[in-house]
Amino acid sequence: MRINDIRLSPHFRLMEFECRCCGAVKLLPDLIELLEAIRSGFGRPMVITSGYRCAGHNRAVRGSKRSLHLLGRAADVRADMEEQMEIESLAKNMGFSEIICGNKSHYIHLAL
Ligand SMILES: [Zn+2]
Ligand SMILES: [Zn+2]
To answer: What is the signed CA dihedral for 99, 105, 107, 109, rounded to 10 degrees?
Structure first.
């Protein structure tokens, strides 16, 4: 059995939030709760393209020094531009501190 293959909610597993370079992971439980609530409204799969990032990986992807990915408080979800608008409207008023559309980069960043 794979490490971090742990179900956190009906649609998310811990391994989906691992740092892409080293497999380390930190994750705020409230983030999963809100992502699951969005997933319910969205009604189709949501692929996490970036969850936790270690400092080295955050530098490699040119993340901000204060990126909430470093703290396990942020997730990027793959989404085309229409899906970004849909997810953004679902995420509004849920209490996220950051909702950032990547537009043509095809992701939306959600952080607590
Ligand atoms: Zn890493
Ligand atoms: Zn992000």
So the answer is: -30
